[in-house]
Each structure stands twice: as structure tokens, then as C-alpha cells.
Amino acid sequence: MAVIFLLYASIVIAGLLSIIKNSDIFNYLFKIISILLESIFSISEYLQGNSSDVIIITSLPYLNFDLFTEFKILIYAIFTVSLIFFLKFISDLFSLKRMTHLILSMLFQVTLSFIFFSETIPVILLVAVIMTILFYFIPLGSGRYFSLIEYGSFLESAYKPVSLNFNIYKFILRAILPMAPFALFFKILIPQVTVYLVILIYIAILLFIFMNTYKDKFEGNLRKIVVFSLIIIITISQQKFEGNVIGFILSILAIFFSFERLLSSFKDLKKEIQDNSLLYIIEKKKDDLDWLVENKLNFSIQRNGDFSESLLLKQIIIHFYLDEKDDLLILTKKYSESYGSNIRFVEQIKYFALYSTKNIKEKYKYLSRIFEMEKSEVELQQIYIEYSWVIFYETEEYDKIIQLLNEISYILSDEDKFILYYSLMRTGKEKYAQNLKNEINNFEQIEHEINMKKQFF
């Protein structure tokens, strides 16, 4: 799985390198800005009395516009989306396993990359060499690669990006127009400065502002990761060693310091995930008694304080795992009175803390009410399994069992897979049921035990 994700990353890098290297629009815009600033510098020289002529360049550079080259990434995206739907249809038609579907997707994706991006082969070869070295020091099966995927899931649950409302007029007003007075100021302050140096300094300032104007630390670290990754990619793609030793050394330094800042941003992002991701606490800290006790707040004393939603949810989880039901009731009540976006998650916690020992009819009633609520940002996956078993014994709504267990199919035990198999058979989906049966160990024994239990309900 980790290898597949790294291969995906190499394809994306190959595409970025190809776009940066071959795009005429990027170079065209850069030349227009250079012409504009050269004209401003000429006016500045004239006003300062350093020149008797004002040179205004009115001819624009020629743009050899190739629709396929410039919009290659768009065409590539259209083909990719079409491929996803096509493979989904094939997978459903022939009942392919998820891993087979994923491998087929990768093969077709690599083929598309070869067609669209000329840099694909060298980049993949480079990634293959790096991966070989990496696997030597960090072998497959060590859990480190799967940990990367896990943290991606934790980040997704913790960080909710705000909707991007890009306004072209505000962008021109705030980012483009200030370039002229900025360039004029630099020319007056340092007459020897070149146009290209001014552009580089101005872009660097814009990037600095972009990296340091964020609403939370998640967004800040993600912005830094994007910027430093682009700096590394652009520096590598533009590097041409033609005897310029100083330029080559400077490029190495730029890549080195960008890597250093990139790793630092990843570490900060990891710490932010560990501190704020509810999913991380649920999956990684539920058995860490020292951490739970250290981070627990005594709500029997601090009942009247005002707390943020994230803190309340964090404390609800901690008190649940510590089995402190009195404080848990205080917390859940306080959350219900103050917030509502994650009320379904809070009710799931209450179910396992207070209702899991009730009779099956009461369980069904409570769980049905929970699943009528709007989904929360984070959920206890075990609640889907619990509800499926209750339905299996109480109401035999097999379509609902299939729907519930398909959402968490990757964590099902053999017993859970059996009731999914049983539900598929009872709803006429024999083909899918037989594929699932092959994944169940000791099928006959499990079938006998569950049928015996079912007789008591």
C-alpha cells in the first residue's frame, strides 16, 4: 500500500516538473512583468535626473500558445476521472477485490502519465532508487509507511479547510498593484538593482505573507509544506549545470534548507495532529493510561467554566476511556447544551458507557435514534458493528446491515463478515456473498455458533 502511494506521488511530481518546464504562459507572464518594471525604472531614472530619455517598451513578447501543452494537466485530469469511473464499473461487473482494483488503477495511471508527461520515466526511476535505499533502512512491514497513511486520516478528521473564495479583483489590488511602488522604492533606494532581483524579492515577500497569514496551525503548516515543496521542485527542474559552480552550490543550499524547513513543518503538523485530532486519541491513546490521566481535567470541580467544543470533545473521550461515568454525564450534558455539530458522536460515547448492557430492544431503540442524527466529523466505528448485530438479532433488516458494514469493511472480524455474508445471501446478492465467504476463516464453525445464538432471540 505504501509503495502504491509513493508511486502516485512520483507521478504527480513528474507532472509538475513537466508543466513548469514546458509552459510558455508562465514565461510569457514573467516577461510582461519584466517589461512593466523596466519601464517604471526608466521613468524613475528620468525623474531623478539620471537619464534624459524615458524608454517605454510597448511591444509585447510573442506567445507561441499551444492549447494541448498549456492545458495538458486539464486534459490529463479529464482522462483520469473517466478512468476512475470506468475501473469502478469493471470492478463491480467482475466483483474484483479492492487490492486488484487499486493495482489496476495504478497501472492505468502510470500509462496515462507516460503519455502526457515526458519526465515520468526519469522521475519514476529516481523514486525507485530512493525507495530502494529507503526500504533498506526502513524495511516494509515496520509500520512506518502505514503510519503515514494513518496520519493522513487523522489530519483529514482534524482539519476542516475553509471554502476558497478567490476574488480576482482583490488579488490584483493586494498582490499585483503594490508591485509598481515596491519596485520604484527599491530603484530609488538601490539604483543598481535589476528587474529580476526586484521580482524575486517581491515574490519572496508574497510567499512569506502567504505562509504566515493563516487561521490555525494546521493551515499554516500545510501552506509551508506546499511552498517549500514547490521551491524544491522548481529548483530541481530549472537546474542546468553548465560550469557555473557557484550557481550549482547555491541550488544545493536552496534545496537543503527547503528540505530542512519541509521536515520541520511536517514535525509541527504531526504534533498538531497529536494534540487536536479526536480520531488520533480514539485510535492511538485509548490504552495509554498515563496520557489519559495526564490530560484529564476534573470537571466535578470545574462545572461552571466555558469550554471550547474541541476541548469538551477531547475530555469526553478521555473520561470515557477512563470509565469515569459521573464526569462523563456532566460533559455530555454540557456539550448538548452548548454545541450540536458532533452530537451523534457524543451519543455514541454515551451508548457504550451507559446503554451497552441494556436488553436488545432498548439497544435497538437507542441506536436507531443515533443513526437518524446527522453524521459527526468523527465517529466510533464500533457503533456500526454494534448496530448491525442488534439488527441481525432483532429486526433482520438485511439491507441496512449491508449498508452499515460496507462503510467499515476494512475492520471487520470474521464474525462480522459472516453476518454481512448472511445478509448478502438473504437479499439475493449471492455473487458478492461467495467472494466474501472466501475471506472468512473457519466459516462452518462461525456459522454454527451464530446460528445457535440466533435461536435465543
Automatic annotation (TrEMBL):
Domain of life: Bacteria
Statement: the UniProt record of this protein carries the keyword Transmembrane: yes
Transmembrane intervals: 6-21, 67-87, 123-147, 195-214, 221-239, 245-263
Record's keyword terms, sorted: Membrane, Transmembrane, Transmembrane helix
Name recorded for this polypeptide: Uncharacterized protein
